[in-house]
Amino acid sequence: MTQSRQVAAPAQGGPENDNSNQGKETQKKQGIKNMKDKCILIFIGLVLGIVLTILYFSICLKGTETQHFCPHDWIGFQDKCYYFSKEEGDWNSSRYNCSTQHTDLTMIDTVEEMHFLRRHKCTSDHWIGLEMTENQIRKWVNGTVFNKWFTVRGNEKCAYLNDDGVATARCYTERKWICRKKVH
Fold first, then answer.
1. Model confidence over 107-117: pLDDT tens digits?
2. Contact at 8 Å (CB) between 179 and 97?
3. For the chain, which terminal residue's Cβ has fewer other Cβ atoms within 10 angstroms, N or C?
4. Do 88 and 144 sit in the same domain of this protein?
C-alpha cells in the first residue's frame, strides 16, 4: 500500500513567502552596506596613498634642494670644501694648482677651522694662503691683513701648516698644499 503524501505548497503571498522576501531584502541591504563600506575603505586607502606619496616626494625633493656637496677628493667642513694635495710643490705652483680648481690656498678664519685642518693634514706640512708682503705685513691670498689671532713662527715669506701650528719658509720649498672653496 502506497500512501502518497502531498505537501501543500504555501500560497503565494502567505506568511512563509513574506519571511523569505524579508530575508532577501535584508541580504540585499547588507550587500549594499558592505559594498559601501568597501568603497569607503578603498577611497580612504587611495587618499592616504596619494598623501603619503606626495609627502615622500616633497621631502626627497626638498632634501636635494638644500644639500650641498664638495667635489670628489675634497672634504667638507662647515660651509667650505678643502682639498689636501697628495703631490708637493712650491708655494706659487701650489697656489696655481688651486687656481685650476677655481679656488685658492686656504685661509684660516676660526679656531675650529684650524683644528679641522691640523687634524686632516696628517703628518705632512701643507702650504696655506698666508704670505709676508714687502712691507713686512702678513696678508691672506684674498688681500686681507692677517689679524694675528694665531702665532706664525718664522720670518720667511710663505706660510705653511705643520703639527705645531703655522710657520714660514722660503717659497721655493716643496710641500703639499690645501685649497679651500665654498660649498656649492
1. 999 999 999 99
2. yes
3. N
4. yes
Q: Which CATH number does the domain housing residue 84 bear? A: 3.10.100.10
pLDDT at 175: 97
pLDDT of residue 41: 86
| Per-residue confidence (pLDDT) for residue 64, from 0 to 100 | 42
Count helices and strands in the chain by DSSP H and E runs: 3, 9
In the chain, at which residue ranges do the beta strands (DSSP E only) sit? Answer: 75-77, 80-84, 104-105, 126-132, 138-140, 152-153, 158-162, 165-169, 176-182
Which positions of the chain have pLDDT values less than 70? Answer: 1-32, 56-68
Q: How many domains does the chain have?
A: 2
Burial class for 58, CB neighbours closer than 10 Å (0-12, 13-18, 19+): exposed
Which grid cell is 155? 720670518
